[in-house]
Specification:
With 197 residues, the chain is α+β, with helices and mostly antiparallel strands. It has helices spanning 2-27, 86-91, and strands at 30-42, 49-63, 68-82, 100-114, 119-138, 141-161, 166-175, 177-179, 182-184, 187-196. It has one domain (2-196): Porin (Beta Barrel), CATH 2.40.160.20. The strands form 2 sheets. It has an 8-stranded antiparallel β-barrel. The radius of gyration is 23 Å and the shape is elongated.
């Protein structure tokens, strides 16, 4: 009889815990908006420079457990403007080498994993619809590249949830694009803030 009462008590406790667990998992899901500001670094070809970069995202996450949520996001990114290397300018006298710039739209997936009650790891990846402008050297002559391409982006971060609805983080993101041979793929280190609804 004691064993039966123990089993019934444990089963009842389990049934009570399931809604509580489900509710805790739901708290991590929902709509969000986040933004970040940081520094982009583009050091390839004739360019070697850094600039301020920023992006903003809107999205939705589904809570798959109390500590893990997976979702979708869409956003806009302005990754900065970079100047040509002094050595590239000196090596090509009489050729006007102009600054390059990159901005675009993102659409992808994101994840949020709490490894403690407040500290989290994040990840994101998806498509990057880029609008790139810059110079490409072909046979020693500058050819202006100005167009759009669809490549990819990916990033990871770590941060702190101050509440269920607000967090700040530190991130590294990589953006890839290729406009007819003009390959612009900066890395961005940024600080972010996120508001969840």
């Amino acid at each position: 009889m004691k064993n039966t009462l123990l089993v019934i008590s444990l089963a009842a406790a389990g049934l009570v815990a399931v809604p509580a667990l489900s509710h805790a998992a739901e708290d991590k899901g929902g709509f969000f908006i986040n933004g970040s500001v940081g520094q982009s670094d583009y050091s390839k070809s004739i360019y070697d420079d850094t600039d301020t970069a920023y992006n903003v995202n809107l999205g939705y996450r589904w809570a798959l457990s109390p500590s893990f949520a997976l979702g979708i996001e869409a956003g806009a990114a302005n990754l900065g403007t970079w100047s040509p290397k002094d050595s590239a300018i000196a090596a090509n006298p009489g050729i006007s080498l102009r600054d390059s710039e990159l901005k675009g739209w993102t659409l992808g997936a994101n994840a949020h994993y709490n490894f403690t009650d407040n500290w989290y790891l994040s990840g994101r990846a998806g498509l990057f619809r880029a609008d790139a402008e810059g110079d490409l050297l072909i046979d020693g002559a500058a050819v202006r590249a100005d167009g759009k391409s669809t490549e990819w982006y990916a990033g990871a971060g770590v941060g702190y949830d101050f509440t269920d609805n607000f967090s700040v983080g530190l991130n590294y993101d990589y953006y890839k694009t290729d406009d007819n041979g003009f390959k612009v793929d900066p890395g961005v280190i940024s600080a972010s803030a996120e508001l969840r609804f």
